[in-house]
Structure formats: structure tokens, C-alpha cells
Specification:
This protein is an alpha/beta fold. The chain contains nine helices and 16 strands. The protein is elongated and about 80 Å long.
Length: about 400
């Protein structure tokens, strides 16, 4: 009986087994474990995919992972918030952490998979089901290993998809105590299976949220001089704030402000009393990120004072950029090369997306790499879309990369 038996309603892996692309490339105990359990790793992913849970609601996911670890004789600890797990494997002062995120997105799935989401309006559209399945596989494989030269800490993290991220909760719960280095993988549907995208330095960007609420007395559009033209003020912010901010930051920082929502008024001949403007502010540079809030507040004041419109600004600080430490990034690349040869590791570009793995790197060196999940044929099914899916051959490869990275870091 395996942990999959706890969810009999899930369609188990059928047909030809998912091949282990790196078979024979690792330690004998890792090859042996994957030869027996690669199908289980695929099943873990499918089970998690069928029962997705939103940020800080991952109770079923936490229980599923905890049962699997307990069945292997390990001692997982549930985080104080009730979701998420920490589990140490091995003994010794040196400790390497491996992290996976667990939460799903508020999207309705449109894949037609036999193990598609059973929860209305919720799906794993970012690969967190795969991340957790691969980390679980790596942990169970490591539990079967001869004595390790130190400890490997598994971190199953909740709430990556919300700002400023569940990583802060994990850190506050002591997950980084005693950790020397940390690694993570993230699915990349633009990269072919069997390839790992690595980069030294920043690999993601900072992402903040801006929310502006404007207020004024309102009035008739025939007499704008007798009131405060709130819609005009919104227009000035929409056009001038990104433009002026671009003249106050280093253009090499990749800083970009994009508005995503604006609401004000309903009648064509009435100046409204209230308006809302929301957007995201991203930058690829850590130092620039630290300065942005002050610059934005100053510019908003400058733009709006002449209009006579009242306002409140919420600048919600999100996550800093993920800045890969050089040695850690090279360890991940070397891990991939050990599995599938010198062509397995590829250079990857910096993304403008945010990722709360950055919070761990504020405490210890580490790196995140992009795991190829595209089959090499057919359309690219991008993340955060209802049609996202992945080639499950990536799962055993991810298990091997995570395991090898931990062993390299401990060696």
C-alpha cells in the first residue's frame, strides 16, 4: 500500500511507464529507488493536481505529503499556520534545504486531463503540484540512501501565489535555522524536458502592488472648473507616473509600472466622486527595489496636487528579486550535467515575474533553476493559464537534480 491508496478516486498512472531519462547516472541507491518509484512520483503529482488548494488553505495537500513522509519513517513537522511542512533527513551540523511550493491558483482548468482539478475555480496552473511531487520523491529517495554527510531539509511551502509570500511564514517558523544553502526548481514550459535553465545573479524580478484611491466633490462635466476633475487626475497618473518614474531609476534596472485596473464613474456627463487605480511595479534590481516606494509617493504627490483631488496610496511591497548565488547556481547546473550530460544545463534569462523564494536568499546563499517541462512537440502551454500542462518525464529528472544538488552541497 502506498500513499496513493489514500486517494482512490485519482486516476493512477496507466499505459507505458514514464521513462527515467537519467537512469544509470546517479548513485546506485538513487537508481534503485527511481526504478521502483518513478511511477509513484507521477502519481503524487496527479493526486495533488486533482485536489488543488489555494494559498494558506493547503490542508489536504499537507496531510497527503505528511502521510507519505511518515510512511518512510521520517518526522515531518507541520508549520504553525496549519499548512506546509518541514522535514529533516540525516544528521550532522551541515544542512542543505530543498524547497517546493504547494498552493494552486484561482483558475478553472481547461485541460481535459483524466486527473484534472475536481475543485471548481481552482487549478495547479503553475506547476506547484509537480514541485511538491518532485521534492517528495527526492526526500523519499534520500531516506533510502546510506548515511548522508549532513542533513537535507525538505521545505513544503504554502502561499507562494500571494504577496508577500508564504516564504516569510516559513522563515518565521525557524525553517532556515541551521541551513547553509537552499535550492529550488520551477517548471518552465518554454524549456524542453531534460534541460535545466540556470543563471548566476538575478533570475526573477521584484514585484510590488500599487493601489490608488482618488476622491473629489464630483460635478457636471459642463463645469469642470468648479470641481476637481477626478477622471483627468486618473489619466494623468496612468500616463505620467510610469513616464516620470522611468526618468528617476537606472534604465538598466528593468523597472516597469503597468496598470491593470481602473474604475471611475458611469455617466458620460458626470464627473465622479471616487476612482480606483491598481497596477504592478516590477524591477530586476534589488537596490532599485529598495528605493521605489519613496520615489512613487513623491511623484504621485507631484502629479495630483494641481488637480485638487484627494488620494490614498497603498504601496504593497511584494518580493525582492531572486538573486542566485554563484556557487549555488553552479551546483544546480552540475547536478543536471551529472544526470544528462554537459548539454543538460542551459543559460536562462531573467524573468520579470516575482517569486518568494527570494526571501530565503535574504538569509542564506542558494539558487533556483528552471526545469524544462515542454515535450518538444506541439504548443507551449504557459503557466498561469487554464490549459497549462507538463510532460511528466520531467518529474524523475527533477527528482534526480534536487537529490544530486543536495549531495553536491553536502560533499
Amino acid at each position: 500500500m502506498t500513499v496513493l491508496d489514500t486517494y482512490p478516486e485519482v486516476v493512477p498512472p496507466t499505459g507505458d511507464p514514464v521513462p527515467d531519462l537519467g537512469a544509470g547516472s546517479g548513485p546506485a541507491w538513487l537508481d534503485a529507488w527511481l526504478a521502483t518509484h518513478s511511477a509513484d512520483v507521477v502519481g503524487y503529482r496527479r493526486s495533488l493536481h486533482a485536489f488543488p488548494e489555494l494559498a494558506r488553505q493547503e490542508t489536504r495537500t499537507t496531510a497527503f505529503l505528511s502521510r507519505a513522509l511518515l510512511a518512510a519513517g521520517l518526522e515531518p513537522r507541520t508549520l504553525r499556520g496549519g499548512t506546509g511542512l518541514i522535514c529533516d533527513i540525516g544528521y550532522g551540523d551541515r544542512c542543505v534545504a530543498l524547497r517546493a511550493d504547494m498552493d494552486a491558483l484561482p483558475l478553472s482548468e481547461d485541460t481535459g486531463l483524466p486527473f484534472a482539478s475536481t475543485v471548481d475555480g481552482v487549478m495547479h496552473a503553475c506547476g506547484h503540484d509537480a514541485h511538491s511531487a518532485m521534492l517528495l520523491g527526492a526526500g523519499l529517495a534520500l531516506a533510502s540512501a546510506p548515511p548522508l554527510p549532513g542533513r537535507v531539509r525538505l521545505i513544503f511551502q504554502p502561499a507562494e501565489e500571494v504577496q508577500p509570500g508564504g516564504a516569510l511564514d516559513v522563515v518565521a517558523d525557524g525553517a532556515m535555522d541551521g541551513v547553509d544553502r537552499i535550492f529550488a526548481l520551477h517548471c518552465d514550459p518554454r524549456l524542453e524536458v531534460g534541460r535545466l535553465g540556470t543563471r548566476v545573479g538575478p533570475i526573477t524580478s521584484a514585484c510590488d502592488l500599487l493601489r490608488l484611491r482618488l476622491g473629489g466633490p464630483g460635478g457636471h462635466t459642463s463645469r469642470p472648473h468648479l470641481t476637481a476633475d477626478l477622471v483627468l487626475a486618473l489619466g494623468l497618473l496612468i500616463t505620467q507616473l510610469p513616464l516620470l518614474l522611468g526618468r528617476q531609476v537606472d534604465p538598466r534596472s528593468g523597472t516597469v509600472l503597468v496598470w491593470g485596473a481602473v474604475q471611475a464613474g458611469e455617466a458620460a456627463n458626470a464627473i465622479p466622486q471616487h476612482g480606483i487605480l491598481r497596477g504592478t511595479l516590477r524591477t530586476a534590481d534589488h537596490a532599485t527595489w529598495a528605493e521605489l516606494e519613496g520615489k512613487v509617493r513623491s511623484l504621485v504627490e507631484t502629479i495630483l496636487v494641481p488637480t485638487g483631488v484627494d488620494y490614498t496610496l497603498e504601496h504593497i511591497r511584494g518580493v525582492p528579486p531572486v538573486v542566485n548565488e554563484e556557487e549555488s547556481a553552479r551546483m544546480l547546473a552540475h547536478a543536471a550535467e551529472l544526470v544528462l550530460g554537459p548539454d543538460a544545463a542551459r543559460s536562462t534569462e531573467q524573468s520579470s515575474g516575482g517569486e518568494d523564494f527570494a526571501w530565503y536568499l535574504e538569509h542564506v546563499p542558494g539558487a533556483m533553476a528552471r526545469l524544462g517541462v515542454w515535450s518538444g512537440e506541439g504548443p507551449l502551454r504557459d503557466i498561469h493559464q487554464p490549459t497549462f500542462d507538463l510532460d511528466e518525464r520531467a518529474l524523475p529528472f527533477g527528482v534526480r537534480v534536487l537529490t544530486q544538488a543536495a549531495l553536491i552541497a553536502l560533499a
